[in-house]
Amino acid sequence: MKIVDIRATTVAVPLEAPLRHSNGAHWGRFIRTIVEVEADNGLVGLGEMGGGGESAEAAFRALVPYLKDHDPFQLETLRFKIANPTASLYNNRTQLLAAVEFACIDLMGQQLGVPACDLLGGRVRDAVPFASYLFFRYPSERHAEIRTPGQLVEHARALKRQHGFTVHKLKGGVFPPDYELECYRALADAFPGDRLRYDPNAVLSLAEGLRFGRAIEGLDNDYLEDPVWGLEGLRAVREQVRVPLATNTVVVNFEQLASNVLRRAADVVLLDTTFWGGIRPCVKAAGVCETFQLGVAVHSSGELGIQLATMLHLGAVLPNLTYAADAHYHQLRDDVIQGGRLAYAGGAIPVPTGPGLGVRLDPDRVARYAELYRELGGYPYDRDPGRPGWYAQVPNERFADPAVSAES
User: Which residues cross the membrane (predicted)?
Assistant: First the structure.
């Protein structure tokens, strides 16, 4: 089996409503680039990358000379062909590598007639549990805004009824820390026995990070994720707060993981199949974490069904995955895969059992959302449509005003 072509299509898939985060917002849609790697036997493997647009499509086309006639089973040589560590200082291809690796694993599974998790060590679970992943959000034509503690709790209740979540993650860093602390405590009061986690995307000052961490010590926390920026900042918080710390921002490669092992700053590493350059590096990293008693979770970078499948196959094979995974997935209105969105059951999503990643593209949906991308274009992830001229600083001091309703 040899690679003969690579095709990339950027799509815009609508969200239920615009999602606010510490650095800006998702403006009512996710922009993702769908990758199809065609082999000489007629099989097509699927990959996915965040963002993109015309530049991503061109970047994937530019990989064809590198990978034409490459055997998809040769994943280690694939890594060096695309993301040689020295060359990558100049071309930054880690996310391109991830999308192609997804597709190659999909091709391998299809060729052998086995699901991807069987190629990664075999499943230890048949379904992966997920957290509810709660956002403050702007209103849409279908949904009201989420700004107050009451609105946040009602949204969490609705998601729990619909999907069965028992872990609730609040994406923060939007409003002043004291206000978000009030919201977090409201969730704890509303869902006794459920687990909680808070993630302000590293925009708190060290003083605010310490104050927030100490204030939640008595709650049922899974962890406090990236309260401040950097390994040194996390170490300072970890030394003074009795809540496990997690990161998805500053342990995203093996050198950073080694640094965290030698001088622990984070107790839990959130593994992202895109940020780490593929599924296999995440499996390797999880093995290091198991050795040194670091917790692991699965990070979400705004997935559609293809990347979600990679997250499910990853979660299926990790014996030390003791935390519910993150996913933006329930915030989507639709997907590009056949059958639409994969369904939650009891707060979990079953691991696909079909060959390879176990999902296939729906051509009509791909065409529809590719056209929507051409119509609407991208959006600036690090800007907020409700605050023209605003941008985030680290640490941030210019938080949104919780008294101002977007619906007024």
Answer: none
**171 catalytic, yes or no?**
yes
CATH number of 22's domain = 3.30.390.10
Catalytic residue among 21, 163, 299, 313: 299
> Based on the domain organization, do 105 and 126 belong to the same domain?
no
Taking a C-beta distance cutoff of 8 angstroms, is the pair 32, 51 a contact?
Answer: yes
CA distance 120 to 19: 34
Domain total of the chain: 2
Residues 230 and 155 in one domain: yes
Contact 326, 68 (CB under 8 A): no
Residues 59 and 197 in one domain: no
Catalytic residue among 21, 171, 313, 328: 171
Gap between the terminal Cα atoms of the chain: 59
pLDDT in tens, 326-357: 999 999 999 999 999 999 999 999 999 999 99
CATH number, position 166: 3.20.20.120
Query: How far apart are the C-alpha atoms of 332 and 246, rounded to whole Å?
Result: 25
222 and 370 belong to one structural domain? no
How high is the pLDDT of residue 408? 61
Burial class (CB in 10 A: 0-12, 13-18, 19+), 389: exposed
* Host domain of residue 251: 118-350
Considering the domain boundaries, does residue 384 fall inside one?
no
Does one domain contain both 204 and 308? yes
Same domain? For 138 and 278 the reply is: yes
In total, the chain counts a number of residues equal to: 408
Please say whether the beta carbons of 96 and 78 come within 8 A.
no
Judge whether 299 counts as a catalytic residue. yes
The tens digit of pLDDT for each residue in 84-97 reads: 888 877 778 999 99
Residues 6+ apart with CB under 8 A from 279: 101, 102, 105, 116, 120, 273, 310, 313, 314
